[in-house]
Amino acid sequence: EDQVTQSPEALRLQEGESSSLNCSYTVSGLRGLFWYRQDPGKGPEFLFTLYSAGEEKEKERLKATLTKKESFLHITAPKPEDSATYLCAVQANQAGTALIFGKGTTLSVSS
Amino acid sequence: KAGVTQTPRYLIKTRGQQVTLSCSPISGHRSVSWYQQTPGQGLQFLFEYFSETQRNKGNFPGRFSGRQFSNSRSEMNVSTLELGDSALYLCASSLGQGFLETQYFGPGTRLLVL
């Protein structure tokens, strides 16, 4: 069964304290991995798509990487406005174009 | 460009009733997917429509159904509501129907079943 696991469930950081979020997956033929950010009361906001192992993408203070079994979202020098729930999702051969989501990591950044 | 819009934003129903939720995709997008989000299960895929045809379906009972119109707008219907159907229902649109098409989400409809 296709499965996505994110860790930690919650993370508290001080402003400027860099860290990484983990997304591990077990799927039958990975087509792509997606990162989204979700603020309370809103829908997920697209951040990145990663297609193959070794790929990296960056956007402001965020950098996403992909290996054959997991993906990391690195947050460098976070600010309070980076506080949100970060969701990882995969597309796999057997599930078609459906996104299979992890439960998310809730990040809180305090000043 | 306007984003994905969903109506209504909030809804309260009682057990046994039915409900219809609406989604308008980003202009030019032809694929619409629906997801259910709950605290316990997270985001789960319901179904996907492209060119008025259901292309993919998740593991939900037949009480959950949907349709897509010729202008790509989509509706989902839940009949005989149960308490466990209380959730945030999210609609996502993408330009095409293939793998790796970015899915852009709307703000969701929060459904409370009493």
Describe the secondary-structure layout:
The complex is a heterodimer of chains A (111) and B (114).
Chain A: E1 3-7, E2 10-14, E3 19-26, E4 30-38, E5 45-50, E6 56-59, E7 62-66, E8 70-75, E9 84-92, E10 100-101, E11 105-110
Chain B: E1 5-7, E2 10-13, E3 19-24, E4 31-38, E5 42-50, E6 53-57, E7 64-68, E8 74-78, E9 87-94, E10 104-105, E11 109-113
Parallel strand pairs in B: 2-11
Antiparallel strand pairs in B: 1-3, 3-8, 4-5, 4-9, 5-6, 7-8, 9-10, 9-11
Structure explained in plain terms:
The complex is a heterodimer of chains A (111) and B (114). Chain A has no helices and 11 strands. With 111 residues, chain A is an all-beta fold. In chain A, the strands form 2 sheets. In chain A, strands 2, 4, 5, 9, 10 and 11 form a 6-stranded mixed beta sheet that branches. Chain A has a 5-stranded antiparallel beta sheet with strand order 1-3-8-7-6, with no helix packed on it. In chain A, strand 9 (84-92) and strand 10 form a beta hairpin. Chain B has 114 residues and is mainly beta. Chain B has strands at 5-7, 10-13, 19-24, 31-38, 42-50, 53-57, 64-68, 74-78, 87-94, 104-105, 109-113. The mean pLDDT of chain B is 96. At the A-B interface, strand 4, strand 5, strand 9 and strand 10 of A face strand 4, strand 5 and strand 10 of B.
